[in-house]
Specification:
Two copies of one chain form a homodimer. With 227 residues, chain A is mainly alpha-helical. Helix content of chain A is 70%, strand content 4%. Chain A has a three-stranded antiparallel β-sheet. In chain A, strand 2 (69-72) and strand 3 (76-79) form a beta hairpin. Chain A binds chain B through residues 16, 54, 57-58, 61-62, 65-66, 73, 86, 89-90, 92-93, 95-97, 99-100, 104, 153-156, 159, 162-163, 166, and chain B through 16, 54, 57-58, 61-62, 65-66, 73, 86, 89-90, 92-93, 95-97, 99-100, 104, 153-156, 159, 162-163, 166. The structure holds a DNA duplex (30 and 30 nucleotides).
DNA sequence: CTTTAAAAAACTGTCGACAGTCGGCAGTCG
DNA sequence: CGACTGCCGACTGTCGACAGTTTTTTAAAG
């Protein structure tokens, strides 16, 4: 239920303007149409999107709460620019959440969860072969959302979803480089193996390794492309 | 830095209406002036507060992102009502965050942090003697915020702050009962002792115990007062 | 007296407009 | 030639209003 962040609309174009604007802004930001630190003009956005400023303002507040924008009073909204230490903090929090989640999941690992996760890794691997970087990221995030979901704490999942917007922000910094498909595959299969083993230490090791790899990848990428 | 919620303005009473309304709503909710599940009318609120609906709407979106309100499209905003499992989830996430934080803190436990925490426990104990329930809660939260702060991950602190609004919501459910001052004192001193010992396992045990007590207290309180 | 349906009231979503404020630019003074 | 001051444009914060929808009230039928 709470899993479908990638909304199943498309058909019914009857969604709040606020959410539509929020989606547009989110996409525009993670696709670098707006650069980090750039200022967003309310009037120009409302002109471009053909809506009034009220929905734009409310959407901006939404993105602010998600950490994609920051507001300076009387100045407007700016695209969030993550520095090195904030980036470390994001991955440290991710580690915190996922360590907890995988422990909880190990305690209640059902065949259903096992099946769903395995299936999602397949999907992810398939996506990793392709060229669509956005889809690869989304399928990756979806795997982790599934993990959090089956851990049985919806609030934990929400915390991860909040964080995931910032994770996307991190990843946009390094769109140039590509993680090798086999790296992604093995990294996720290790998680499944650890869960299958049923040993909490193994799960912890696997998730530590997994997130460590992702963090190093981003940190390295940022170092190369130069902030 | 991120600790000073009470910003250095004070002179110029120039604060966004949005924030003023948000503060008002927050207070009104945790003081049970609006009951859980109750619907908030935008027009009535704007009438009562003497402002237009725009700031009210933006403030409501803010509180929604903090988990104090939920919005139903075309229906409006409702005060969040936590059920038993959501309540469990909140405390489980709190455990997740604080376990991680106290580990990080143990790795970098400076005399400055030690001093600040000790001082805050003193303040908390003093507050626990008094009758002001709200202040006791705020001083308690402030202690934990300090812990998270000195853990050195501002993003982790933000996650806790997000959660803290829901914690207040939990606690409002049980305003009737009071935790004994000595219980609060010993519970926090155990945390300090564990940190002083420098042993990670001791820290983990202490935080598990601490949050377990708080959770049981709330769960028990909710069970008694019904809902 | 209960149930259904239609009309009215109230409310949300959205819009355009006005006022106060901020940043930049030109003109002026030292 | 450089620093200060006042003006100008652009923008944010806030407001009142309109349209469509939901809820409530009212009325009629069974």
């Amino acid at each position: 239920m709470a899993l479908s962040t990638a909304a199943p609309r498309a058909f019914i174009q009857q969604q709040n303007l606020v959410e539509q604007v929020a989606d547009y802004l989110t996409q525009a930001i993670i696709q670098q149409h707006f650069l980090p630190g750039e200022r967003l003009s309310e009037v120009q956005l409302s002109r471009d999107l053909g809506v009034s400023r009220a929905p734009v303002r409310e959407a901006a507040r939404l993105l602010e709460s998600r950490g994609l924008l920051i507001s300076k009073p009387r100045r407007g909204f700016f695209v969030r620019a993550l520095n090195a230490v904030e980036l470390e903090d994001v991955f440290d929090l991710r580690l915190c959440l996922e360590r907890h989640a995988i422990q909880r999941l190990a305690e209640r690992y059902t065949p259903e969860a096992q099946c769903a996760l395995k299936q999602q890794v397949e999907v992810l691997c398939e996506a990793a072969e392709g060229n669509d970087g956005t889809r690869r990221i989304e399928e990756d995030l979806q795997f982790h959302r599934l993990m959090l979901h089956y851990a049985g704490n919806e609030r934990l999942l929400r915390a991860f979803n909040d964080l995931s917007h910032e994770l996307r922000l991190c990843i946009t910094l390094i769109t140039k480089t590509h993680e090798a498909p086999e790296t992604i595959a093995t990294s996720h299969f290790k998680l499944l193996d650890a869960l299958d083993s049923g040993r909490p230490e193994a799960c912890r090791e696997a998730i530590d390794y997994h997130i460590g790899v992702a963090r190093d990848f981003v940190v390295k990428g940022v170092g190369e492309t130069g902030e």
